[in-house]
Amino acid sequence: MSTGTSTSRSANVDDAASGLARVVPELDPVRLLALASVAALLGTFLSVLYRVSDVAGDVTLFLAVAAGTLVAATVVARLVPEGIAVALAAVLLVVGAYAYVTQLPRDVAAMPTLLLLVSDGIELLTGLSVLRIVNVGLWALAATPAPTFVAWYLALRRRYVAAVVVGGAMLTLFILTGDASGALALLGVVAAAGAVGFGDLELRGGDLATAETVAVVLAAMVTAALLVSVVPAAGSDPLDLGTGGDDQTVESSLTTAGDSVSILGSIRLSPEVRFTVTSSEPTYWRVGSYDRYTGGGWVRTGADRSYDGRLSGPIGQSRTVRQRYTVESELQVLPAAWKPTRVADAPVSLVELPGGGVGPDGTLSPGDTYTVESERPVASARELRESGTNYPGPIEERYTQLPSTTPDRVGERTARITANAENPYDTARVIERWLENNREYSLSVDRPRGDIADAFLFEMEQGYCTYYATTMVTMLRSQGIPARLAVGYTPGQQVAQDRWVARGLDSHAWVEVYFPDQGWVRFDPTPAAPREAAERQRVQQARQANGTGGVDTNESRNRTFTPTPTPTPDTPTPGNPNPGVTPTPTPTTPTTNGTTNGTNTTSSGPGFGDGADIASPGGGGDEGGGGIPQPTREQTALGLVVLAGVAAGVHRSGAHSRLYREIRLRYQPRTDDPARDVAQAFDRLEHLGRKADAARRPGETAREFAARVGAVGVSGTPDERARRLATLHERARYGGGVTVEEADEAVALADELVSDRPPIS
Q1: Taking Cα atoms as reference points, which of 418, 397, 404, 485 lies closest to residue 451?
Q2: Triad 51, 287, 614: Cα angle to 5°
Q3: What tens digit of pLDDT does each residue of 42-90 get?
Q4: Which long-range contacts (C-beta less than 8 Å, at least 24 apart) are formed by 583-588?
Q5: Which pLDDT does position 589 carry in this prediction?
Q6: 35 burial level (CB within 10 Å; 0-12, 13-18, 19+)
Q7: What is the pLDDT of residue 192?
Q8: CA–CA distance, 479 with 414 (Å, rounded to integer)
Q9: Using CA atoms, how far apart are residues 304 and 95, in angstroms rounded to an integer?
Q10: pTM of the entire structure?
Q11: pLDDT of the residue at 691
């Protein structure tokens, strides 16, 4: 009975092993390396999709879809032929596309499905970031299953080249859209090369020793990329360390960034004149807004539309503000007071931007002019307090988005700060004033890694406009209040009753908060007094160094700065009956870093904003508090590839064995066994003989070898220490054993012999 039971259990085990073998690939080391390379390639584009899902606010479903797809592909690869697998992949693709299209906004989904998908594909291939897609979370879910399933299925079927083509196509897409960093792109290239190399080796029956050559080649690829940029991704540094010099600027990331705003580190200010504006009243000359927060910057979702000559006005009460702009240096934006309803006499064609506003479809040149008619919201504080929280669904969904990785402590601290606020308006006011009074203004900051708002709220003491505005928007969204980042220029230098000169250093970022039945209202948490003092000082320095060329117009040249009250926000403050104008406080003295020697308060001044010379969007600042940048996951993976290649090269050359022997020759660790210590000491003597071309011969006794090798000394005279060591070795091995004292003697003799006879290389 026992035998039968044992036989039955054995059969069950064999059946289980057989079933497992049909699902799990054979554990051939070379095959595992090939599959690991394909997995790394899949990881590159899946990491982009993970990041996209994180920004959209939920990664749980994405992780479930990705993991489920990989499991399904593993099972199908062992049980289903390729024809059926291709059909399954097609079904996944169709289902994903259908789910994506049916959840789009009605005005977009009204387009024919095929036309919509083709249009989106063309825009992505021409550089549109995936993050600009409105329903990007669903897009990531729809785009994940099909390529992941096909690539992993093909890899398990030993179709490594085909798997690389599929995975590489997805990674290439994200390289073209700019969503894959240089380090990630390089990692994908290395993974693809590894999959092809190890896969071909496996198909040819190669062994692990031969695979070391492939590993060395992969390490060489990464090393070469450190010296020469070979990956068509953002930045000239393929590892994209994100370190920046002292010339980092902010104006381009705010006013000419296009689809995205980058948050930089330290910046410098540009005193060059950008435009002059004649207006019935001063305000912020808005350029655009951004709705999607990524944790490290901002993205404007949606596509530009053709401008038909008229824009809708604000939903609440407003007053008309007419402006006429004269361009003084090249501009790629169209500044206008919020909310523009009509633009006339523009020298280039125009487009309507998502989130309101108008942009030029081209570049404005010096001397160009255009006029704008805007409707400026005039809601009172009481009306805003009473507007409630009945937000339209699309507004609430779009403008309360936060990455899923946003730390909970951001919302928790915001809730404590605003505990006494009874409505969204008071909440916004409290946050605005808290940031003004608790953070100092400075242009010299180190750009933190991780979430910018979290870092500014908990770790940083200083910052400039993008840090203030980003943090305020994040804090508001953590409380369910729709808000967005707006960029443009502050009023600038007033040169006449109705005319202002705006310079590059007037570029600025602020906050717009949505109120039901009123629309978007501006708030500005950046303290004005130290900001304006720093800008005033920069203009004076530029005039002293370069005269007035590029720094002034005919009206602003040799003219003292006429104070223009900085409007913040468009609503009345307690004790200030004049909407849009902040009361003039007691002047403060700026310190060398652009902060004041007192409490940060809003003051009058020339209306300068944060800004700088034009620079490439997407530049980073100094990382990690000015120290050595901490590597990202991609950089760590590339470093591991290099280390693995170096290890493979060392192993293949035999250098590791030689190094090990050299270390053991010079240093002998002691054990608790005297006989073993003596044996190791004699091994060191034998190694000395090999180094001196006097290796121990077959059949040669320990004493005979010691007598021979002992005669090969520096002086050529016999060395009795070698003979004594051989005697102790024979006693330990063949005699009655050795004592601890004799073991100590043997080790000491070996040490002396090594010291007197340096190994011969």
Answers
A1: 404
A2: 80
A3: 999 999 999 999 998 889 999 999 999 999 999 999 888 888 888 888 8
A4: 585/529, 587/529, 588/529, 588/530, 588/533
A5: 34
A6: buried
A7: 84
A8: 8
A9: 28
A10: 0.71
A11: 74
Sheet containing 273-279: give its strands across: 340-344, 369-377, 318-327, 273-279, 499-503, 493-496
Q: Which of 413-427, 552-566, 743-757 has the lowest mean pLDDT?
A: 552-566
Q: Locate 33 and state its tokens.
A: 């390396």
Q: At what angle do helices 182-203 and 208-227 cross, to 10 degrees?
A: 160
Q: Which class for 755: exposed (0-12), middle (13-18), buried (19 or more C-beta within 10 A)?
A: exposed
Distance between CA atoms of residues 368 and 373, nearest Å: 17
Q: Name the residue among 185, 151, 283, 206 with its Cα closest to residue 33.
A: 206
Helix (H) or strand (E) holding 372: strand 369-377
Which uninterrupted H or E stretch holds 123? helix 113-125
User: Token pair for residue 55?
Assistant: 């920004």
Mean pLDDT score of the chain: 77
Angle at 298 between CA 294 and CA 299, to 5 degrees: 95
- Cβ atoms of 199 and 49 within 8 Å: the answer is no
Paired with 279 in beta bridges are 323
CB 374 within 8 A of CB 358: no
Mean pLDDT of 197-205: 81
SS (H, E, C) 75-112: HHHHHCCHHHHHHHHHHHHHHHHHHHHHCCCHHHHCCC
**Does the pLDDT of residue 189 top 80, yes or no?**
yes
Share of the chain above pLDDT 70, in %: 69
Pairing of strands 519-523, 493-496: unpaired
Distance separating alpha carbons of residues 579 and 162, to the nearest angstrom: 65
State the Cα–Cα distance between residues 116 and 72, nearest whole angstrom.
30
Q: What is the Cα Rg of the chain in Å?
A: 35
Owner of token pair 């021409």: 126
Contact 351, 305 (CB under 8 A): yes
**Cα(726)–Cα(749) distance, rounded to whole angstroms?**
10
In degrees rounded to 5, what are phi and psi of residue 514?
-95, 135
172 three-state secondary structure? helix
| pLDDT tens-digit series, residues 207-225 | 666 656 656 565 665 565 5
Say what the pLDDT of residue 468 is. Answer: 96
As a 3-state breakdown, the chain gives helix, strand, coil percent values, each rounded to 5, of 50, 15, 40
Asked whether 467 and 454 are in contact (CB, 8 A), the reply is no
Which tokens is 239 given?
A: 């590892």
Give 315-363 as a DSSP string. Answer: SS-EEEEEEEEEESS-BSS--EESSEEEEES-SS-EEEPTTS-EEESS-
Mean pLDDT of 334-363: 92
Please, which pLDDT band fits residue 576 given cuts at 50, 70 and 90? Answer: very low
259 near 126, Cβ under 8 Å? no
* The 3-state secondary structure of 736-759, one letter per residue: CCCCHHHHHHHHHHHHHHHHHCCC
Do β-strands 273-279 and 318-327 pair in parallel, antiparallel, or remain unpaired?
antiparallel
